[in-house]
Amino acid sequence: MEPNTTRDRILEYFLGAHQKPIQDYTFDLVFPALHHSHESPLPCRETPGELETASSSLSAGIRELFKGLEALQFYIDWRQRRNRGGEPLIHPNGLHLTITIHGQPVSVPYEESLSCLHRVYHSRPLRLPPSDVAALPRLQWITKLTIDPVPADDEANTGFAEVRPVSPRAALELAACLPALRELDCPWLWERTPVSFAPHGEPHMWDLPAPMTHYARVWEGPWRDSRHEFGAAVRELGGGGEGLPRELARARLWFWRPCGFPDDDQVSRMPDLVRPAAVDPVSVGLRALAARLEALDVRAMVMPDLFVTGQMPWSSSLKRLRVEFHPCRPDGSWYFVGPRGEDPNPEGFEVGDEHYPPASRTKEDEEVDEYYDDDISGFGKGYEHDARMYDLFRVEPVAERVEPLLEAFGEALRGMTSLEEAQLFAWLTWEPSDERARGYGYDGPHDNNLRSWEWGVRYVSAKDGTKGQVEWQVGEWRPQQNIVHLFESLGGDNGVEVVWKPFDKKQGRETWKEDHVW
Q1: Which domain of life is it from (predicted)?
Q2: How many whole angstroms separate alpha carbon 25 and alpha carbon 27?
Q3: How far apart are the first and last CA of the chain?
């Protein structure tokens, strides 16, 4: 008889025939499919009740997982009290628990199709109710937690179709339930940045957003709220990390998923994700979270607040630090501009009520849906819904924005007495629009289709009698001398070797290699 509950499946797996103690367990959290048909169509927009139902599904899945593992914990305790011999069920180093969060598919009869994609792309994050989190059992032998959302392929190649974003505070809430946790691994915290899709092929539709710009919009209100919730969760768990496991030593917190061939929108005005806070909640939260870590790997939109110590110094036990910062700052301005100083929309806009997805169909929805439905029915204008309008040109640093970040990074490294290696970098891409490329002619920074490269600085401490090393990879640009001297001082009386490395340009990001950097 097949086990029909999460608890039964967990017990069957762990109590089954295993030749050695178990080190890894993966739990697949699956949302029930949404059903759409012409006779019973889904509402165009997700209603508040449907959002609450999805959050309940998430919470129920987590609760069943923890209750099932608690039942296993009871069995392990019982066996130890009975002095039963044999191999332990769990490896002495503890269990690596992976929670794989799948998307929510839309089920449509074979002969039918969706008339729009509003229910395929989700922006409002799911949350774990505080009462449900408080009721979760504390599991004593889980030493590593991975929370792994499953990206999905779709006709627009966003990787975000059917994905149900979850508030990033949930990762911290679950970590706080695992007293023996030593490592928290979050390869994608559901953040995504706007994509530049090509406009309609028909001039009379240019007053409307392109269908995929409309359907796959990154709604700015939920985006901002998720970042503020992360910062609030760190504060609620105790600033310096008292609410988190005392053994926690390593964390990978990657907020967004990079694309091998970047397609970010570098022209449109970006939202200010900081206001109404005085400082960026994610940057300050990451700094507080790192208070007792030994290794931290971050990919996030950050401000210099990440490194400014103030009353919360960086951990003296930190050995490895890797920070990839986005070319766009959380306040909507940019760290980089075009080679000729191009900086359209240099300031972010304030997020208001109009920047949340509506709960019912709008006039714009109706107009875009009509043309999208014509196109997919074969009677449209030949519009390619996945077509991008590439215009990636921000490859030159803005000194007054990027130098405070570099300086704060260098100052923070001074207090990390156990540091072995630290890196601060961004990925830049030169893929200008046709119009911009014509303006540059052969003067642009192109090189045989090698269009992407890392920009930043890396420090490696002295070891085995060798000097420490500072590697600058910033092209022909140079920071102010006081910043250069700051990094040189990290070597103390022995000094450091300073290396100015040329860019290592590539056709695109080799994202498949990055999961194994650390």
Answers
A1: Eukaryota
A2: 7
A3: 42
Please, which residues bridge with residue 422 across strands? 321, 459
| Listed range (60-64, 170-174, 493-497) with the worst mean pLDDT | 493-497
Domain for residue 79, yes or no? yes
Residue 376: inside a domain: yes
Query: CB burial class (10 A; 0-12, 13-18, 19+) of residue 107?
Result: exposed
Backbone angles phi, psi at 493, to 5 degrees: -65, -25
**Domain limits for position 173:** 6-337+367-514
Give CA–CA dist 472/498, Å, rounded: 8
- Range with the largest mean pLDDT of 157-161, 235-239, 420-424, 488-492: 420-424
Please state, in angstroms and rounded to a whole number, the distance separating the CA atoms of residues 371 and 258. 31
Q: How far apart are CA 201 and CA 210, in angstroms?
A: 9
* Contact (Cβ atoms closer than 8 angstroms) between residue 145 and residue 181: yes
What is the pTM (predicted TM-score) of this model? 0.94
In DSSP terms, which residues pair with 191 in a beta bridge?
Answer: 256
* Residue 130: other Cβ atoms inside 10 A: 10
Q: Based on the structure, what is the number of domains in the chain?
A: 1
Answer whether 14's CB lies under 8 Å from 97's CB: no
Tell me which residue has tokens 């953040």.
191
Q: Which residues pair with 111 in a beta bridge?
A: none
207 by Cβ neighbours in 10 Å (0-12 / 13-18 / 19+) ranks as: exposed
Is the pLDDT reported for residue 447 higher than 90? Answer: no
User: Is residue 344 in some structural domain?
Assistant: no
Neighbour tally for 118: CB within 10 Å: 22
Neighbours of 165 (CB within 10 A): 21
Distance CA 47, CA 208 (A): 24
Over the stretch 83-124, which tens digit does the pLDDT of each residue have? 666 678 889 999 999 999 999 999 888 888 877 888 899 999
* Residue 168, pLDDT above cutoff 80: yes
Query: Can you give the three-state secondary structure of 419-476, one letter per residue?
Result: CCEEEEEEEEECECCHHHHHHHCCCCCCCCCCCEEEEEEEEECCECCECEEEEEECCC
DSSP per-residue letters across 239-298: TTTTTS-TT--EEEEE-BPPPSS--B--SSPPEESSTTSSS-HHHHHHHHHGGG-SEEEE
Mean pLDDT lowest among 29-43, 80-94, 348-362, 423-437: 80-94
pLDDT for res 319: 95
Residue 253 pLDDT more than 80?
yes
Of 330, 110, 100, 87, the residue nearest 223 (C-alpha): 330
Whether 353 maps to a domain, the answer reads: no
- The pLDDT of residue 380 is 41
| Per-residue confidence (pLDDT) for residue 381, from 0 to 100 | 41
